Amino acid sequence: MFKFYEIVFFVEIFFICLFIAFIIDIIIIKYTKQKGILLDLDSTLKPQKMHYGDIPRGGGIGILCSLFIAILFGLQYGFLLLLIPIILVFLSGILEDLHNSLSPKKRLLLQILGAVSVIYLYDCVITDVGFEIPYYFGIIFSIFCIVGIINAINIIDGFNGLAGGFSILVLISIACVSYMVGQIDIFYISIALIGGILGFLLLNFPKGKIFLGDGGAYLLGFLMAFLLITLTQDGGKKVSAWYGVCIMIYPIFEVLFSIYRKKFLREMSAMEPDSVHFHMLVYKRITRSNYKTSILIWIFNIPFIFLPILFYDNIIILMILIFVFICMYLFMYAKIIKFRGLKLT
What per-residue confidence (pLDDT) applies to 235? Predict the structure, then answer.
């Protein structure tokens, strides 16, 4: 149990991060529109485009600044070095947001460098997946997982509040489990991030005055990957790695299914964007509303994010939850396609 002064401290850091992210993002909205930079232009033709008007793509800047202040305010100096991989990953997105010219290979290289640096600095390596895997294989596997989650969050960032709201739900789950197993540093960072993301969401949801952008989406994906690996791979091995898979199963499976759909059903490059992601179909065929699409997908994911809190060390139940999610996802996807007769070929 936290003491009263500790509860006050965590509430303070939550609101400090919320306020900082909110104010910085307001400044970004005004400045970017004046200077004509960091804008997702209405004239841009993209298959995944779901907005009207010129919208700033710098929402991640406010979240990043709020996290930096939280690290200093909480005297969490051990996390200062985390800024090195964070900046590498954030650059891979914000440079694309600024210029729309960063090649996929360069983005991937920066993300791999970010993953390698966090592994080197914090020994952030997956070696326990229900059984032990060799350490050096675990390094390669960890790089793959971190980069995968980074891009998975970017893929689901399609509607106002979708990626941000999903991230808050995941971070609430991480905060609960980290508190239960005594990982207070992870609890602290989770609370700070929830506050920062909420400050952004006040401007992003439901009206979409500012977007996360690639930089913000990559940032959230990286931080959640880092927190989950740290939480599940600590020396006590109290939390199963499958807990992390379960609460992140939506973006993980979205990526895997998208690769399958593009390569085998549509015969196109897996790197090429298309307009038949699950969230896009929900919008086109069910809600016809930007923000309602996000709410519906949040609700759909809630059981698979919060039930694992109760079973964070039970591999069997976690695997069952993952299996149930995949079945529900595929069933709903097929029904939506069939409902309107939409062809994927």
Answer: 62
